[in-house]
């Protein structure tokens, strides 16, 4: 399933859920969603074993950090920034060092073959 379809479906679900919120509380619900999104941009993710890791991931979901807006830093993972042209060489170097390269879902990618 492609990202556009996922985001479209998620947008429809969110819109449906927001219609169920009484009108006098809609502003506060929207403010809560915006605050969660802002906090995930300001607060660094906790380490993977932290008791806050689950709360952080719930906060990122409420803040709608999905798809292109998804945080690049996640609990227990790091992000190595390299120029796009050097990405294949960087992946190969990391894998050659015995360090698994993770895909978008956090699962190890298969090792690149020469």
UniProtKB/TrEMBL annotation:
<feature type="transmembrane region" description="Helical">
    <location>
        <begin position="25"/>
        <end position="43"/>
    </location>
</feature>
<keyword id="KW-0812">Transmembrane</keyword>
<keyword id="KW-0472">Membrane</keyword>
<keyword id="KW-1133">Transmembrane helix</keyword>
<protein>
    <submittedName>
        <fullName>Uncharacterized protein</fullName>
    </submittedName>
</protein>
